[in-house]
Structure formats: structure tokens, C-alpha cells
């Protein structure tokens, strides 16, 4: 569906526990909505098998990340399971000013910081159908030890407490359905009266 | 797309100037989303060619309408171009309680009353691409005199002042696109965290 010309792009924040399938949902979403700019986060964690630098993350060393913090280059950053994650401010601002929607994949601490700096950001939290299913998905990845998996599940329970701060809640039981819900949310946000007031004659 | 089980139905209010094509958009919408209950308004105006009692409106006499007002049977009512329009409360409440979305087609005065009584109602205003196009559509209907058309255009300009009170603004330049936007709004509203908090385990 063609979108109307926008005065300003929409900042969209996507969060969800490790293992929920966020990357798959995002890939599906970006496949259908190629006009969205996906902001690739910076991180100090090591790439997993199949992850590429500049695609899944910009992988940097710890001292480089700390320099970016010191130089104020980040919209937000947080430490999560002993690694830094952060979002570069400059590219995002350019895209939003050009009327392009920007999607951020960040965890709950970062999302709260984005909300405080950009009150108009749309915050979406993705949950699995159940904790049992999340546990199954984490084990199915075959990348983490049982100890790490237990840590991720515990972290997920803590993250859930932040859900009331999110505007929308999407359940990823089927990737295509979750992506479709997110696309509907983006269309709806685009239809908000405050985002379309420029379309009205004589008001 | 299958919708998740809801705790409560959503009340949706659709407004827009006479001639914007609201009935056509609603027909398209209800064709795609047969789970929505369309609340047929009561009115004292005479049926237009092709309009059926109980379908487009419940057509009643003025004294019957005034009895309904007196007996508190209406969620809202308003007078518009010398005719009464109103919404019956009972059916709506039953549907919402059963988890069914209810769509109301009402003008701006009625919408404001619904908002004050039901703060969670979703208010959508439909505009034409331009006033010129609205004028063309009104003339194309061949049902109204030039004087009535001029009155409707003037009324439309007044209604436009109420647009900031609406949550969403949909431009009806193409019926299918307008209906698709409204469907997206309904899906998004269904995804709101406050409407899905019952899906979260342990919160």
C-alpha cells in the first residue's frame, strides 16, 4: 500500500526477549516495507554464526564503543548480558527529517531512553506465545549453554515488567501474522490526526 | 487475519462530511471484516433512493424519536440539517461485552458525546481529497438542490474544525485504500498494550 507523503518519519522501537524471533519478524517486515530504514545497532558482543557486520549489528570493540559514548554519538546505549548495545543518533535524525520511518531493535533500557528523548516514538514489545515456547526456541538455537539460557529466561521475566511502558504488544506465534500486525500499527500511526493535520485544507 | 480473543469489544466512531463516501467505505470495510457489528443509527430524515429501513438507518417519525430521547434509550443524539440522528445504547453494550467490535457512523456532535461517555472509543474522521472533490461528489449524487449542496459544503467546513478531536484521519481518495487504513487502525488498536495485558503470563 502506498503511503502518503509525510512531514516527518516515524521512529519505531521494537523490543522483546532474546529468543522471541525478533530478527525473523524484522526480516519479514522489511521485506514487505522496503521504505523503512532499519537502524543497525552497535554492539560489543561477538557475532553469532550467520551474523554479518553492518547487517545484524555493527560489531565494535569495547574501547571504540566507550569512545562513542564519550563523544555523544549515541541516542541511547545500555549494557545487557555483559555487552554494550547502542544506537547512533546521526543517521536516524537524517532519515526522520527526510520523512523516512526508522526502525530500532533495542532492549528495554534503551527503549526507555529513546522514549524520554523522543516522546513521539512508537514502542512495540514482542512476546512469545508462552515462556515454555520461549525456552524451546532458545534451546533450538543451539548457540547457548543451559546456564546462558536460564539467564536469558530470567532476564525475559524482568523485561516483561516493562511491557506497560510500551504502546503495543505483538505476540509472535506466527512470523507473518506478527509482521502484519506491526505493519498495521505503522499504517495506523501514519493515520493519526496529529501526523496528518497538514492534509487538511483551511485548518 | 484472525483476531485474538478480546476481553472487550472496541467502540469505533466514524465521522465525515456528507458526500465523502462514508457509506461506500463502510460497506467495503464490513465486507472484509464481518466480525464487526455495524450499529444502525436511528433518524427522522426520509430515506434516499436505495436506502432501506434497518440497513442504512432505522427510519422513525419525529415523535417516536423524541420518546426515545425522553426514555434514555440513546447513547447520543443530535440534530443535523433539521433531522434527528441517534444511537441506541442497549445493542452496543451487549456486543462490546461479548468482545465484538461495534462501528458507529455518526456526525461530529454525536461523536463528541460518545467520547465523553466512552473515553476508550476510537474516533476516525474521513475527509475527501479536497473540497472541490467533495463538491463534485455531492453534485454527482443528483439527490440534492444547489442550495442543499451549498449548505452541506458550509457544514463540512464547520465539521472540519472538530478534526483535532479525532484520533485518526483517513482520506477517501480510493475506497479500498480508505477501508484498508481503517482495518489497519482496528488491528493496531487491538494490539494496544492496554487491550492485551491479559495475554501476558505472570504480569
UniProtKB/TrEMBL annotation, chains A, B:
The keyword Acetylation does not apply. It is an enzyme of class 2 (transferase). Its main location: cytoplasm. Residues 9-187 form the Guanylate kinase-like domain. Keywords: ATP-binding, Cytoplasm, Kinase, Nucleotide-binding, Transferase. It comes from the Bacteria. SUPFAM superfamilies: P-loop containing nucleoside triphosphate hydrolases. It is found in: Cytoplasm. One of its GO terms (cellular component) is cytosol. InterPro entries: GK/Ca_channel_bsu, Guanylate_kin-like_dom, Guanylate_kinase, Guanylate_kinase_CS, P-loop_NTPase. PROSITE patterns: GUANYLATE_KINASE_1 (PS00856), GUANYLATE_KINASE_2 (PS50052). One of its GO terms (molecular function) is GMP kinase activity. Its EC number is 2.7.4.8. ATP binds at residues 16-23. Belongs to the guanylate kinase family. Essential for recycling GMP and indirectly, cGMP. This is Guanylate kinase. The gene is gmk.
